[in-house]
């Protein structure tokens, strides 16, 4: 299955190139209208692209300076419009002859080259190069989601002119894995709970940990570099501090992308259709030792997971974080003394495990309860543990093909440490 997104980008075009683009637009629209007029002749409207190509191509090439592929794209635009009118007639609706006047040109890879930060476009007189005017890369925008994302590929684009400014509407596509379709049709969903923290940046209910060690190491490292530069105090030092900041942001983003990919992998390997996080609002106040840097990192991580998950047909949700670290995921007993720093030991039933792992399971369970008591339609939901699944009644199911005792999951967490680099 494919996911398609259109991303508009503004182009940086000088006046000479703008003049060429205007002429290209004029000739492209002329060509498309010429083909429509031709298709419209006679009682039967011609809708076949091959036939229209044969009957109009030479004349359009003679009358315009358009690149051969732009002639074909104009013909396709015309044929699509005529087909649309014929389809409406078949529905008994009224539709007149199409006419194109909006300034647009359709580009594909044969008459344009789409680079990361610029594009090369065929015009009536050779090609022009135009830089994209991109927003700040730190913000979450369609550009950072789809253009800076290797999973998405630019397949074609439409050039637009609006109030004298040039824009390219880039069409991107990505392949989406369809191995979740079976669960989607049976209505069964499995949730991966994810706990966020300082010592462990993320812990999944499957027992996989992503350590915060590398994050802390580099934060200290960059802080020291900034402090050293601050002592110099010169303008040059100030510029260097900004450079350190950019480098820091870039390194952290790469790290967060790796963790996000790891979480997605964890979810797909375990057949999860939902990834549940705790609510991010107020997270800095809830976690002791969390800085603004952590808050920033959790927000980025959530965004990365959210858009990467979309490609796999996985939903990402946030649940109420109250007591997820104090509640026993086995018996439900909630008490602040159940937890002491990284260890969780239930005062009631004696369940012992890593505190963040216990919290990750609670996050998954909270999603599951919310969706079974609410308007979720009563579809079965399970929380994926490191071995097997836990359902809303607290019943444990071992993984398929293995024998396991109900109610006694073997679940000491496996630690997976993120490689540095
Ligand atoms: Zn307990």
Q: Would you give an account of this structure?
A:
This protein has 421 residues and is an alpha+beta fold. The protein folds into two domains: 2-175, no CATH class; 190-397, Nucleotidyltransferase, domain 5 (2-Layer Sandwich). 41% of the residues lie in helices and 23% in strands. It has ten helices and 18 strands. The protein has helices spanning 15-40, 49-63, 68-90, 142-147, 181-186, 213-232, 235-269, 283-286, 292-310, 355-373, and strands at residues 2-12, 104-108, 112-114, 118-123, 126-133, 153-162, 165-175, 189-196, 200-204, 209-211, 274-278, 315-319, 339-340, 343-345, 352-354, 381-384, 389-391, 396-397. The strands form three sheets. Strands 8, 9, 10, 11, 12, 16, 17 and 18 form an eight-stranded mixed beta sheet that branches. A seven-stranded antiparallel beta sheet has the order 2-6-7-1-5-4-3. A three-stranded antiparallel beta sheet has the order 13-14-15. β13 (339-340) and β14 (343-345) form a beta hairpin. α2 crosses α3 (68-90) and α6 (213-232) runs antiparallel to α7 (235-269). It is elongated. It starts with a strand and ends in a 24-residue tail after the last strand. The relative contact order is 0.11. Residues 178-186, 400-410 and 412-421 have low confidence and may be disordered. Bound molecules: zinc ion. Zinc ion binds next to loops. Residues 180-281 form the Probable transposase IS891/IS1136/IS1341 domain. Keywords: DNA recombination, DNA-binding, Transposition. InterPro entries: Cas12f1-like_TNB, RNA-guided_DNA_endo/Transpos, Transposase.
């Amino acid at each position: 299955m494919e996911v398609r997104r259109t991303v508009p980008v503004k182009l940086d075009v000088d006046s000479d190139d703008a003049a060429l683009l205007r002429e290209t637009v004029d000739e492209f629209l002329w060509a498309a209208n010429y083909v429509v007029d031709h298709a419209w002749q006679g009682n039967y409207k011609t809708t076949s692209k091959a036939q229209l190509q044969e009957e109009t191509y030479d004349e359009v090439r003679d009358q315009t300076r358009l690149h051969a592929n732009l002639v074909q794209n104009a013909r396709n635009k015309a044929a699509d419009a005529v087909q649309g009118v014929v389809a409406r007639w078949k529905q008994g609706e009224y539709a007149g002859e199409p006419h194109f006047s909006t300034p647009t040109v359709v580009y594909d890879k044969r008459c344009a080259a789409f680079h990361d930060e610029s594009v090369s476009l065929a015009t009536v007189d050779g090609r022009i190069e135009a830089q994209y005017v991109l927003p700040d890369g730190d913000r979450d925008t369609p550009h950072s989601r789809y253009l800076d994302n290797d999973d998405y590929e630019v397949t074609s684009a439409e050039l637009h002119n609006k109030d004298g400014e040039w824009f390219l509407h880039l069409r991107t596509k990505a392949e989406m894995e369809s191995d979740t379709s079976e669960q989607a049709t049976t209505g069964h969903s499995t949730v991966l709970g994810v706990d966020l923290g300082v010592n462990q940046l993320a812990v999944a209910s499957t027992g996989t940990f992503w350590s915060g060690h590398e994050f802390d190491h580099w934060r200290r490292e960059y802080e020291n570099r900034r402090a050293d530069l601050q002592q110099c105090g010169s303008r040059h030092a100030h510029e260097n501090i900004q450079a350190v900041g950019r480098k820091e942001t870039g390194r952290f983003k790469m790290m967060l992308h790796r963790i996000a990919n790891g979480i997605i992998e964890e979810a797909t390997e375990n057949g999860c259709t939902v990834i549940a996080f705790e609510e991010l609002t107020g997270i800095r106040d809830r976690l002791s030792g969390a800085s603004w840097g952590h808050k920033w990192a959790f927000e980025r991580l959530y965004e990365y997971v959210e858009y990467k998950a979309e490609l796999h047909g996985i939903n990402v949700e946030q649940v109420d974080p109250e007591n997820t670290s104090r509640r026993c995921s086995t018996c439900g007993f909630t008490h602040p003394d159940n937890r002491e720093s990284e260890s969780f030991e239930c005062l009631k039933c004696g369940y012992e495990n890593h505190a963040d792992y216990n919290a990750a399971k609670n996050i998954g369970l909270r999603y599951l309860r919310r969706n079974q008591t609410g308007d979720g339609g009563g579809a079965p939901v399970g929380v994926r543990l490191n071995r097997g699944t836990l359902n809303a009644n607290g019943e444990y199911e071992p993984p398929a093909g293995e024998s396991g005792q109900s109610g006694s999951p073997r679940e000491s967490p496996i630690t997976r440490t993120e490689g540095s680099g």
